[in-house]
Amino acid sequence: MNNPIHSQSHMRAGAAEAASPHRHSLAALAAAAFFAGAMALVNPAIADECDETTELVRSAARDRQLSGELVARIEIAMERAIDRQVEGDIAGCRDELTLVRQILQG
Q1: Residue boundaries of the structural domains of the chain
Q2: Rounded to 5, what percent of the chain is helix, strand, coil?
Q3: Cα separation, 67 vs 96, whole angstroms
Q4: What confidence tier does 91 reach under pLDDT thresholds 50, 70, 90?
């Protein structure tokens, strides 16, 4: 016998699974925007690059057209940008932020 409650909860679970990659992308982009903003506060010398990157990330989140592969590339580049900043490699940090912007601009 078909249990309507079980069917409804199963459909909700299926919808949640389908939305999961989208949620992951939005969460990753939110983290990228947060960290770009935080890097600007920590190091005003790269504030312009961080602001430009943050705006592109926000725009990408609104458009919702990024593939999982592109989001992963953005995450990796942001991690490297943070690492470079922590190491005091401002030129390397700028290079990674430039890479993020290039990914976002296509």
Answers
A1: 23-105
A2: 90, 0, 10
A3: 20
A4: very high
